[in-house]
């Protein structure tokens, strides 16, 4: 998964122009295969404390019409965005906004919001501090949010790591390069990927103009990407990208196994009988019992909803649904054996984790619960659409292109994955980020990603 920090010179007091610039950067990010873009502190209004104090109308809500270009750009390009603005905080003092980051998902909806907890200097006169931790999940990655002066407090990054976050996102407005020294420390001390979007241009209440130099640091503290200094920032802006694919929560993660199961008792149904209009697995790929053509009834309902949401001329094909536990175990062990042969120096736990990128461990497998569907897009005549790799391409075979948000695939394949994902997310399914074709509902991974208290489906035998 590629994520990016956006750096551009905001126009003072011109929300419309700044929102348009953000939308253009989100479109550019979508073309690059970026999944998330972080903007600098108060990039929508420019960092002008005098203006915010004098004009209550600069405070926004997530559904504010002035943010419509940003939300629409997220939807059109399948890119999430972190946008920092003055915002009315629920429960905050009347007339005093928070210095708040709205996180819009790839469908334009609000994923979460985070108000800066540690205000600096005159900010204390203009804003009210926040209290929430600032966490969200996207594409199997657990993110943490912080804003500028927040990053001077090591305990925020420490708590983020303790909470299972793997990527730390900072929206800031620093006027000196020396202020950036804390970011590699936060990365190195906590084993986090750190991404900084820093402001450029004039700012009131600080010692000088924003210095730019937005950047990305690896968990060992090495900087791997940087934008130029603020004075050199082009009008159209810059994007600093970093690949955080290694932070995806895999099926082998203890957090997945820790999710409780409260079996709801939904039956497994044969989609060939229950939904004859849905393209089912090809007959030559089915076992005698037709197991792969079965799904929990609730999953099937959601697939039908997703297909109705597809653009005209496109259909879903179920390539594989239910998988008996014994078959799941066989698949897992066969792939683990391939990895052992290719990497004889790997310890058993490393083999187990690596195998879970491609085949779920049998004890928690969504397919064996009837909650997972391997899906492809087809044309109206059933001809498969180019999705960038073949179905079931392994990470080794595809050089990682099987990851849903993999960079480097064709623009057409990226659009196809985006179209597939938009329809399925709307219907309530979640994706396993190492496999663009694997979508599920009601299983443990779904529960972890959506924040549900428990999974609805446990392993089941086909009767």
Summarize the structure.
The protein has helices at 15-32, 49-54, 68-77, 123-126, 154-162, 182-190, 254-257, 271-274, 297-309, 325-342, 348-355, 395-398, 411-426, 444-450; strands at residues 2-7, 34-38, 80-87, 98-104, 110-115, 135-138, 141-147, 167-172, 193-198, 200-201, 210-211, 215-217, 223-226, 238-243, 268-270, 294-296, 314-320, 372-379, 430-431, 438-440. By secondary structure, it is α+β, with helices and mostly antiparallel strands. The mean pLDDT is 92.
What level of helicity do the residues show? 25-40%
What's the story with the biggest beta sheet? 6 strands, mixed
CATH architectural type of the largest domain: 4-Layer Sandwich
| Average residue-wise pLDDT | 92
Instruction: Examine the coordinates and then state which fold CATH places here, giving the name of the CATH topology of the largest domain.
Output: Nitrilase/N-carbamoyl-D-aminoacid amidohydrolase
Note the overall shape: elongated
Gyration radius, in Å = 23 Å
Outline the structure in words:
- This protein is α+β, with helices and mostly antiparallel strands and 463 residues long.
- It folds into two domains: 246 residues, Carbon-nitrogen hydrolase (Nitrilase/N-carbamoyl-D-aminoacid amidohydrolase, 4-Layer Sandwich), CATH 3.60.110.10; 197 residues, Muramoyl-pentapeptide Carboxypeptidase, domain 2 (2-Layer Sandwich), CATH 3.30.1380.10.
- The chain has 14 helices and 20 strands.
- It is elongated and about 75 Å long.
- The model has no long low-confidence stretch (mean pLDDT 92).
């Amino acid at each position: 998964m590629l994520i990016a920090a956006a750096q551009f010179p905001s126009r003072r007091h011109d929300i419309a122009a700044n929102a348009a610039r953000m939308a253009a950067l989100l479109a550019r990010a979508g073309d690059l295969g970026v999944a998330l873009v972080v903007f600098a502190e108060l990039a929508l209004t420019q960092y002008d404390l005098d203006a915010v104090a004098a004009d209550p109308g600069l405070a926004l809500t997530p559904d504010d019409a002035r943010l419509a270009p940003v939300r629409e750009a997220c939807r059109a390009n399948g890119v999430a965005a972190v946008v920092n603005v003055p915002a009315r905080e629920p429960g905050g003092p009347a007339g005093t906004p928070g210095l708040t980051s709205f996180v819009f998902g790839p469908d334009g909806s609000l994923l979460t919001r985070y108000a800066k907890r540690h205000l600096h200097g005159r900010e204390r006169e203009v804003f009210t501090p926040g209290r929430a931790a600032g966490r969200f999940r996207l594409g199997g990655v657990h993110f943490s949010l912080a804003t500028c002066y927040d990053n001077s407090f090591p305990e925020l990054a420490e708590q983020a790591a303790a909470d299972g976050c793997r990527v730390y996102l900072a929206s800031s407005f620093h006027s000196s390069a020396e202020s950036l020294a804390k970011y590699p420390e936060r990365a190195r001390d906590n084993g986090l990927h750190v991404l900084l979007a820093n402001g450029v241009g004039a700012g009131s209440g600080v010692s000088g103009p924003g210095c730019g130099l937005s950047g990305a640091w690896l968990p060992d503290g090495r900087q791997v990407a940087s934008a130029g200094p603020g004075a050199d920032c082009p009008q159209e802006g810059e994007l600093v990208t970093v690949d955080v694919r290694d932070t995806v929560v895999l099926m082998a993660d203890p957090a997945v196994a820790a999710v409780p199961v409260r079996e709801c008792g939904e039956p497994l149904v044969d989609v060939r009988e229950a939904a004859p209009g849905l393209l089912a697995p090809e007959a030559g790929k089915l076992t005698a019992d037709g197991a792969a053509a079965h799904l929990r009834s609730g999953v099937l309902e959601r697939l039908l909803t997703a297909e109705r949401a597809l653009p005209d001329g496109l259909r879903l094909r179920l390539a594989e649904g239910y998988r008996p536990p014994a078959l799941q175990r066989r698949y897992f062990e066969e792939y683990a054996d391939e990895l052992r042969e290719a990497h004889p120096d790997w310890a058993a736990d490393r083999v187990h984790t690596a195998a879970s990128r491609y085949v779920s461990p049998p004890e928690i497998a969504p397919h064996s619960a009837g909650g997972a569907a391997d899906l492809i897009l087809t044309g109206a005549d059933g001809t498969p659409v180019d999705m960038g790799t073949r179905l079931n391409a392994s990470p080794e075979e595809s050089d990682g292109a099987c990851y849903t948000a993999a960079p480097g695939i064709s623009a057409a394949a990226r659009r196809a994955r985006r179209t597939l994902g938009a329809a399925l997310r709307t219907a309530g399914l979640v994706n396993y980020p190492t496999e663009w074709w694997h979508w599920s509902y009601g299983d443990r991974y779904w529960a972890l990603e959506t924040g549900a208290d428990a999974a609805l489906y446990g392993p089941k035998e086909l009767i």
